[in-house]
Amino acid sequence: MSLHVALLPSSGMGHLQPMLRLAASLIRHQCSVTLITSHPIVSSAESQLVSNFLSAFPQVNEKKITLIPIDPTTVNTTDPFSIQWATICHSAHLFSPILSSLYPPLSFVVTDITLLSSVIEITENLRLPNYILSISSARMFSLVSSFPSIPSSIPKTSIPPQVLDSSSYFAKNFSDASKSIKRFDGVLINSFEGLEKECFEMLAAAELTDGLPPAFPLGPFLPLPFEGGSSSSSSPFMKWLDNQKESSVVFVCFGSRSSMSKEQIRELGSGLVISGYKFLWVVRTKVVDKEEKRDDLDEVVGHQVMNKVKNNDAFVVKEWVDQWRILCHKAVGLFLSHCGWNSVVETSWHGIPILGWPHAGDQMIAGEVTEAAGWGVCMKNWGWGINNHLVKGEEIGNKIKEVMENQTVRIKAERIGEVAKKTTEAGGRCDDVMNKFLYSLNKN
Ligand code: UDP
Ligand code: UDP
Fold first, then answer.
1. 198, 224, 250 — which closes off a domain?
2. Residue 375 has what pLDDT?
3. What DSSP state is assigned to residue 69?
4. Is 377 found in the same domain as 344?
5. 10 Å Cβ neighbour count for 393?
6. Which residue among the candidates 15, 329, 338, 359 is catalytic per the annotation?
7. Residues 51, 155: one domain?
């Protein structure tokens, strides 16, 4: 009989997308999947993705829970995705009757790394093996698993600022997650040895010495065909890319939920102009996509940038784009990114250098992963965790120029791309690790 898994994703595209990519891979390896979704969903991007996923995989059983609202002031944040995350934790007891009543009975559960301490007791009571999905780097997992100690390889200044604020809800949950890790059966990581070799070696050593559960490097996770939504090769910006020279364009996108102040957007625009390179820029002024206005681009980016657009030297959009498709395009020569982990892993596969501008959370640690392997440059002092710190256009422009012209970084990026592609080939390391993981489950 095939293995039956229940998947428990957390809030935000950066959590949902890797869980669904994992789901597709488990289905390919003959598992039956139940997906547990928490409603109401925050962003249109998430709702769209779940709906596309379920249409593409009609054999997947979706179970919905209706979240029990919390008082947001108790979690000390105004970020809708973080409030949603805390609400899922608060409603986690609703998972129990679902997990216990599924038919055929479950073989195992996969839980998003931010939900650990809310879920572990439930699956222990049901005697269900439970695996963590680390949607972040192995390096980040090494921090979560050793917290409150900090691995010597991670500078204190790179740690997510909320983790260091011991009075925050985030820090409390992070610390509880850390304490619960050894009660899990393993951790599935969207990363690969070619990207974080030393870290995986450290985790393997900690499995022997400290009883950490085994780590399975299952990445890089590849996107599913329907993820791009409505954007296609005929999108105007894809046509624009077709007319650009190889590796000549700077692609700028800060993920699904990072916005910048009006002033910073203007400085970034002026930096892109100063760099002298052509650019494709995905502008985001709101944290939640539903609140974004579509018709104020001129006002947001200013006339200097709009002149470049009019002259065909730049393309600026304010919509959800198919980032993977853009990264596939040979015209892209550099990715100016916030270093969300999914973006980092995707870019590694394409062998494109990253100029990292971390904003929050695990993004500094992700930027360090790219720097350690030599294919990225991470701007640690560009507004990281510092409110109202304005990075000037000139500094941004000069840095873009410098990294675009850095041949060492470019060659290292190409190499990492070759390794990543080999890892995901049929019969490659990804398949090996997945088979090893499923074998360990069948054995028990
Ligand atoms: N993404 C996309 N189009 C967009 C913005 C983001 O396809 O306009 C995808 C991107 O490829 C990545 C994910 O959304 O897979 C964002 O995750 P990441 O971890 O990079 O950042 P987050 O959004 O969690 O900050
Ligand atoms: N994290 C964790 N346990 C928690 C909260 C966070 O392990 O209870 C880690 C996890 O790797 C996550 C990272 O901290 O990706 C940053 O969390 P944050 O909510 O800032 O960012 P997100 O991943 O939602 O963009």
1. 224
2. 98
3. P
4. yes
5. 20
6. 15
7. yes
146 beta partners: none
Q: Do 251 and 277 lie in a common domain?
A: yes
Cα 296 to chain centroid, rounded: 28
343 lines ligand 1 (CB under 6 A): yes
Ligand 1 nearest atom to the CA of residue 344, by list position? 20
Number of domains present in the structure of the chain? 2
Is 296 considered catalytic here?
no
The CATH number for 391's domain is 3.40.50.2000
What's the token pair of residue 68?
């029990």
Instruction: Give the residue whose CA is nearest to atom 16 of ligand 2.
Output: 361
Q: What is the ipTM of this complex?
A: 0.96
Q: Is 15 a catalytic residue?
A: yes
DSSP 75-112: GT---HHHHHHHHHHHTGGGHHHHHHH-SSPPSEEEEE
Query: Quick check: pTM over 0.90?
Result: yes
Tell me whether residue 432 is in a domain. no
197 with 255, same domain: the answer is: no
Q: Can you tell me which atom of ligand 1 is nearest the CA of 18? A: 15
Quick one: CA torsion of 144, 9, 422, 279, rounded to 10 degrees?
Answer: -90
Q: Do 211 and 245 fall within a single domain?
A: no
Tokens of 420: 């990543």
The pLDDT tens digits for 261-316 are 899 999 999 999 999 999 999 999 888 887 777 778 888 999 999 999 999 999 99
Alpha helices per DSSP H over 91-164: 95-101, 116-125, 138-146, 161-164
User: Is residue 87 lining ligand 1, measured as CB closer than 6 Å?
Assistant: no
- Provide the residue range defining the domain that includes 193: 4-224
Q: CA 325 → CA 57, 194, 229, 281, 340, distances in Å?
A: 22, 23, 11, 14, 17
Structure tokens at 74: 């108790």
DSSP 225: T
Residue 300: inside a domain, yes or no? yes
